[in-house]
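Same chain as my last thread, 96 residues:
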Amino acid sequence: MTTSTFTTAPSRNRAAYANIALWTLQGWIAMFFIAAGYAKLTEPMTNLINLMGWPAIAPENMVRGLGVVEIVLAMGVLSPLISWRVGRPLLLTAAV
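reply #2:
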């Protein structure tokens, strides 16, 4: 009986480390998209054109709207932190 306890403990540790690693990765991805969306919402268009180039051929409303979408989807990636039951569909939608 004690051997089963010892054999499952390392697998639980690996699962815990994998869980922490995946949440860390999700956090970094969410921070990147929040920062990119915030920049698209707050920076003047001349700065965005100099930094990225493509906003020169896109309407300003589209660039600002893309910033809002990036922030909303980044929050969707982090939503399972609140509740897995509520956040799972949001996470899947944000991932798609």
